[in-house]
Amino acid sequence: MFFFSEYLNAKFGRPLQRVPINLPFLCPQRKKTPASRCIFCPEDGALARHLSKDLQLEEQVQKGVGYVKRRYGADTGLIAYFQNYTSTNADPVTLSKIYKRTLSFADFSAVIVSTRPDCLQEEILDVLAEIAEKYELWVEIGVQSALDKTLDLVKRHHSFADVEDAVKRLHKRKIKTAAHIIIGLPGENMEDFRFTSKKIASLPFSGVKIHNLLILRKTELAKRYATDKNFVHPLNEYEYAEALLEFMKFIPPEWPVMRICTDANPADIIAPKWNMTKGQFIQFFTEIQADPGKIQSGRPKIITKDGSFTFYHPAYKEHYHTLAGASTEAEKKFIGPCEIRRRLEKGENLEILDIGFGLGYNAFSAIRTAEEIRGKGEEIRDPKIKIISLENDPESAKFAVSLFPEQSLEYEIAKSLSESGTWKGKNSEIKIIIGDARKTVGILKNSFDAVFLDAFSTEKNPELWTYDFVRLISNLMKKDAILATYSSAYPVRGALARCGFHIGESAAFGRKRGGTIASFRTDAMQIPLSSKEMRIIKETTTGLPYRDPKLCWDREKIIRFRKKTIEKLRRKKVPKWL
Q1: Are residues 270 and 336 in the same domain?
Q2: Cα separation of 324 and 335, whole Å?
Q3: Same domain, yes or no, for 407 and 546?
Q4: What is the domain extent for residue 226?
Q5: pLDDT score for 277
Q6: Can you give the pTM of this predicted structure?
Q7: Which end of the chain has fewer beta carbons closer than 10 Å to its terminal beta carbon, N or C?
Q8: Is residue 309 part of a domain?
Q9: DSSP assignment, residue 266?
Q10: Helices H, strands E: what count in the chain?
């Protein structure tokens, strides 16, 4: 990918920075009724944050130049960026006069004019051609999509044929153009993104500007989304990265890319709420474009703070592990709380039920602990560890293989599990059972010393956090067994308490609260829950467990049933909180 900044740096021998300038022209649709505006456009037309509507042109330029020079250095070159609304929406005489006057206020090296394809009449092109004789000129054309049905839906009031006509006429005059595209518009999917990419690649554009759709407050899109969440699917950073990666496949490599994502005042963004900043996303996308293997089946491979890797799951829209450290989380939330090392050092043989194999960190950490202890001294006999992992996704072990060096024990185990579903060492063994854990747990006859409960969050995967599922698990645990989970959710602790467990908390890691420890033993708690916490769990609707009596309900039904039960209890004066 060839960034626009690289193009300018090569051409001018130094960096150039944009100075946004708000011209006194509106979008032509804003001269009509509010209902005629593009549904995604905010009231200020994406006005630069440092500008106000009442600033005179000279003040805007002075303020913008001052900001650029302070931030990027006195030697930084300048771009006059006529971005807001439609910067060619005026008669040619007025337009020429304002352009010339504005450009006289500073030593600009380049000019970018943002406009619509239906506001580029021949007389306007005459004005632009005059600017192009003195400056590096780029005309940024608002294309958004190559699908007319989408353009109609979002109220662009122009067709893709208008785009084709405008760019061809600009090209004849040797004026550079960039196609402004929005990925994630209502009703569009990956095939539509590809279609738009191929269509603009076939036209004489010189570059491209792409960004993700934001649902901003005080827009028609925001109103539609509030009443119908199915109207549009806001793309999170990983979904957008995958779409952008596909889109860029068809863009000519010599085209400079002006932008690959956008931002706005966080207070104005309704959705999507990204965890990455704009800079972090650019770095992330640059890395995955250089190595597409970092996204496997829609799952980006991400390095966590302790150097271990995790994936993002597109269906659950969550990371498999905390970004504070995938490997460390296994130790602090599962191995430590379940006393795996202490019990192995005592020479105990352990059977572990691993619910939610995921990427294998919990199971691998337990096996590695056993391998480290084995043969350390004659006083310690070699302890044996047997793990049964339950996993719904048959591809999980394959993803795990890609996380570890080829010579590592973890790689060996993951590869064997991906091929045969089992692995056996000298004193350790593991078997992975694929299928819905609510069904597969029912076929087990083992009696377990420890349980790792590691499903996705209660909001995304409530099927594995219900009272009914926890009750099944409890029947498979020995009297001195320990269950550990990263979750501190009150419905989870409520389910455990109602199954007769004593409940404690593990030390916090990667989240504000610690995980949960449950056992029939009172001495297994690292940090016992306070009496107030226990009252919240048992006496309020906050601690009401999820239910799934027949262990077959889907996510929506489980959540809906709990919500209705809470409403009934609230009518009976059961408090929400203490």
Answers
A1: no
A2: 17
A3: yes
A4: 2-283
A5: 85
A6: 0.74
A7: C
A8: no
A9: G
A10: 20, 23
